[in-house]
Amino acid sequence: MFIYGQDIANFGGAFKATKGLAERFPGRVVDSPISEDAMMGLAIGAAIEGMRPIIEMQFADFSSVAFNQIVNNAATHFWRTGVALPIVVRMPSGGTMGSGPFHSQSMEAIYAHYPGLVVATPATVEDAYGLLLQSIELDDPVLFCEHKLLYFHLKSKGLPDPKSVLPIGKAKVIRNGQHATVVAYSAMVHEAIRAAEELEADGWKVEVVDLRTIKPLDMDTVLGSVARTGRVLCVGEAFPYGGVTAEVVSRIVADGFHLLDAPPQRLNARDTPIPYHPNLWKAHRPTSQTIAAALRELIAF
Amino acid sequence: MPQLGESIAEATVLAINIEPGTTITTDQEIMEVETQKATMGVTAPCPGTVLEITAEVDASYPVGAVLGQLEVSEAEAAEAGVLPEKLPEAKADTPHFGVPADDDDGSATLADPIHPTEVEPTVGGLPVPASATGASYISPRFRARMEELGINASDLASVAGSGAGGRVTVEDFERFMADLESQKMTFASPMRIAVAHSMRRSWARPLATVGTGIALDSVLTHRKTCDPKPGPALYLIRALAIALAEDTSPAGRLIGERVVHPPAIDIGFAVEVDDGVLVPTLKDADKIPLAELLPRYDALVDQARQRRLPREASRPGVATVTNFGTFGIDWATPIPLPEQNLVLGMGMGRKAPSWDAESGTFVPITEAQMTLSFDHRLLDGGAAGRLLGRINALLQDPASL
Amino acid sequence: MADALKERFFAAYRAMVTARFLEEKIAGLYHAGKVVGGVYSGKGQEAFSAALGVCLRPGEDVFAPLIRDQAGRVAFGEDPVDFTRTYLGSVEGPMRGRDGNIHRGRPDKGMPAMISHLGAMIGVVNGTLFAKRLKGTLGDSVGATAIGDGGTSTGAFHEALNLASVEKLPLVISVANNQFAYSTPNDRQFACEHIADRAVSYGIPAHKVDGTDLLACLDTYDKAVSAARAGGGPQLIAGTLLRLCGHGEHDDASYVPADAPHRIDCIEVAEDTFVKNAWATEAEITEVRAACAETVRVALATALNDPKPNPANETWQTTASGF
Q1: Band of the pLDDT at B138, cuts 50, 70, 90?
Q2: Confidence band for B10, pLDDT divided at 50, 70 and 90
Q3: In a domain, C79, yes or no
Q4: Alpha-carbon torsion A214, A216, A220, A221, what sign?
Q5: Which of 3.90.550.10, 3.30.559.10, 3.40.50.300, 3.30.420.40 is the CATH number of B203-400?
Q6: Is the peptide bond before B228 cis (omega within 30 degrees of 0)?
Q7: What is the model's pTM?
Q8: Is the CB of C126 less than 8 angstroms away from the CB of A216?
Q9: How many whole angstroms from its chain centre is CA A44?
Q10: For residue B39, which phi and psi values (nearest 5 degrees)?
């Protein structure tokens, strides 16, 4: 196993995620040139040789440079050749203030579109830890979307026993309710919880489902929740065209039409590049307030 | 504590290079702090005099926290763009993502990444359908629950809705169903359910009824000459069949923008059976004389009462005749079968005075009310009246039937 | 030494002829409507490709062949039946009908399977070498791959060459300059004087050779591969040649001028070399060609009688973990 990425060795990475690792594992935490395509190609070759490489993209946005290697080479490899590629691509994802159009993107839906890839989107420190360990053990390429809020804003009292962490492909009901379900993942889980808390003051009990991994997508848990509430809002930080929320809603409609008491709704970022100034940025992505407003409309239907 | 880098939430103060009373200049390094990424200097945004320093060395502060106070002139503060903003800023009410709530220094913008001032949901509006009062809008979930319990929308006419626009919700429905448990209930017979189902389908159309009194004397006289004697309903069947053969359009069905004409003039007639009604069909009633129809008619009545109608006779015809007069009823508004446009009814025959212009006196006749119920989309009162008139004329010449 | 060279020359020649016959046979089947996809031949490039193949050590070295490397594949030890089975979509082949023609390989046996996106496989070979070094199994093995004149314009090519040089990997990159990438001539592809100049800025030694002369190719590859084995870092070999067929069987290459340089059949050149050095008689050459033809006949007959993919038997499984 080794980690390959820009500024990850002595510097410890742009987000300090690999801080101290280069000293603990000499030669296995390696600075790469700024060549995302070649980095991903290297990971594929190393995986063919039986290693379990981890690639750190400095920002998820830059994985687009490696897009070809990820979706055409890595994703098709097991299907085409029968040789599995245990690769983890760590992608600092999602928006933070002042980061602008090229350091804020949520790329998960693009990769989930391609057969042969696993896409993890942890919302909590515990899941980020547990799912990362599971992803490394997995024999397939995993796009590991680490929301940047995980690095400095979210805290955990300690790391969980990895065995206690739900496996890849299982969503989790993290808040029980009866009037509506919010399906969310990554940072939006926390926004959804805040919105649910706000609505609870008015007597509405909102269930929150954290998808945890968007591919595989655990529709059993989602449909189970919709069966309890009859109303569903799906929230994602990514752009609104297509994507995870559209996928979840379409599957709910196809497989759970009889469970619905209102048209299922989606809430995403706006259909523009991600803005730089905080005033614009905060109005661009879903927040607890916009989620709460959407939930009120949904419950009023 | 300024935002010192990408996604930095807090920093630790390593050194403080100033003390209260120090005069400082723009960009002067006043503190050294360490983030998880690097060690760097904090500089003064504008010149001024240090009033107080609240920060302590080796302590960590979130981005946006107050580290100290600087006394500056308003002009210099304005020049440096650090006057309190006029923008309506949101106040954080609770800590979020581990970031402490903002202090009173207006730094909430930076300390609280997730708090927009005005909420404008990007989700589309969800208006309840305009007609969705009562049980007229039924969600998929509601529909699934109704199907599970074998309930129809028309069963819920009495349920008061508590949803948006008075809509009946699943919860209203469940309450309604639970209330029923305390009342006496029996199971409806399969025949009752079949009739109910048929009538519910029929009722989806705008139905109207017209009627007129007719003299039955000719029919009754003719009847006496026959052996066996046909019932008045059979005369009615024959007259209706002939009238429709002359003009099939009243018996058509309106489908979209087209009228579907009947392929044959098969006429049904209502037979009361246990807990319901059956409507056997006489095929080609326009082509077969009354005398020949009679044994078929009698046979179908028997078969209907025994619930042994042959399949062919169970297929709906183009119209139905019902002799509700046998129940002592004068007038009714029967409902046509869902597959038909017309139902012709006849009330009880009664002695009535009829003005005889020739003798200048009232003479007694046997009169009954004849009704025609129809789908008003296809037929108007005038056309319905003309059809009744033609049937009446045919009945006055029973030998021709 | 002369015997070793002669032996290597013979091996390369056998691979060239086998490749030529394989491609001619599959082209014939293509025109008979028996091949579901396209047919992409390396006619005229066999010497440049085979010379690389015979300089590699199967089982130790990695070779990621590209489109025109049928001769190199045979020289590296790929079973010709892998070729026929993949072209015909046999379930018995390495790609089992899931991928076809030149998009094949046996990654677990040192031969990664190319994807169509040019330059992508260089990065993959880098990875195999990087991993071998980390695991301590690199020894003096090398990793080789190929590209054409057009492929050297891709970002992937430049990223991967730079990375290989930064990591000092024993990468051998063979650049066949066909003068035309599909129909696009060199002057629309690069503006440096020689295609080998592309290596300079990465600090990679470039070796130039006449790609139609097997003897010269063997000599050049021998030097380059030896340098890589000896820790000299990546090596680029630029061979000048002209393919004697179009981009694929569907293409008559009418865009190539009749007087284009290097319109030379490298197999004929190799046979002249045999005679000139008195390494083989006409009869011996005929015998070798007959043996190659028999190998091809068997490979084709085998694949033609293989079962075709049945969707009902397909697992449709895209991940090893079964998601």
Answers
A1: confident
A2: confident
A3: yes
A4: negative
A5: 3.30.559.10
A6: yes
A7: 0.81
A8: no
A9: 22
A10: -100, 135
- CB–CB contact A152 B10 (8 Å): yes
Nearest-10 Cα torsion for B254, B260, B264, B269: -10
A172-300 adopts what CATH topology?
Rossmann fold (3.40.50)
Closest CA to A226 of A178, A158, A276: A178
Catalytic residue among A77, A103, A179, A284: A103
Mean per-residue pLDDT of chain B = 84
Return the residue of B nearest to A289 by Cα.
Answer: B119
What amino acid is encoded at C156 in this protein?
A
- Catalytic annotation on A147? no
Give the residue from chain A lying closest to B142, CA to CA.
A261
Architecture of domain A2-164: 3-Layer(aba) Sandwich (3.40)
pLDDT digits (tens, 9 = 90+) for B140-188: 999 999 988 888 888 888 888 887 777 888 889 999 999 999 999 999 8
How far apart are alpha carbons A262 and B235 in whole angstroms?
56
B140: which chain A residues are within 8 Å (Cβ-Cβ)? 257-261
**How many contacts, defined by CB atoms under 8 Å, are there between A and C?**
148
Q: Are C152 and C189 in contact (CB under 8 A)?
A: yes
- C234-286 confidence digits (pLDDT tens): 999 999 999 999 999 889 999 999 999 999 999 999 999 999 999 999 999 99
Question: Distance of CA B375 to CAs B53, B209, B252, Å?
Answer: 89, 9, 10
**What CATH architecture does domain B10-111 belong to?**
Beta Barrel (2.40)
Instruction: Give partners of A (≥3 CB pairs < 8 A).
Output: B, C
- The DSSP letter of residue C282 is H
Q: Which of A28, A44, A63 to mutate to test the interface with C (most CBs of C within 10 A)?
A: A44
Instruction: Tell me what ipTM this predicted complex has.
Output: 0.96
In this model, does residue B95 exceed pLDDT 70?
A: no
pLDDT digit string (tens) for C97-116? 999 999 999 999 999 999 99
Residue B19, CA distances (Å) to B47, B55, B80 in order = 15, 11, 22
Ranges in chain A annotated CATH 3.40.50.970: 2-164
Is the model's pLDDT at B131 over the cut of 80? no
DSSP bridge pairs for C64: C145
C-alpha–C-alpha distance, residues A216 and A236, integer Å: 16
Number of residue pairs across A and B with CB atoms under 8 Å?
Answer: 122
* DSSP output for C22-39: HHHHHHHHHHTT--SS--
SS3 state of residue B275: coil
Task: For residue C121, list chain A residues with Cβ-Cβ distance below 8 A.
Answer: 41
Query: How does residue C148 score in pLDDT terms, banded at 50, 70 and 90?
Result: very high
Alpha helices in B181-288 (DSSP H): 190-202, 217-224, 232-246
Axis-axis angle for helices C2-31, C266-276 (nearest 10): 150
Touch of B by A (3+ CB pairs closer than 8 Å): yes
Residue ranges, comma separated, of all CATH 3.40.50.920 domains in chain A are 172-300
Give C286's Cβ-side CA count (13 Å radius).
Answer: 3
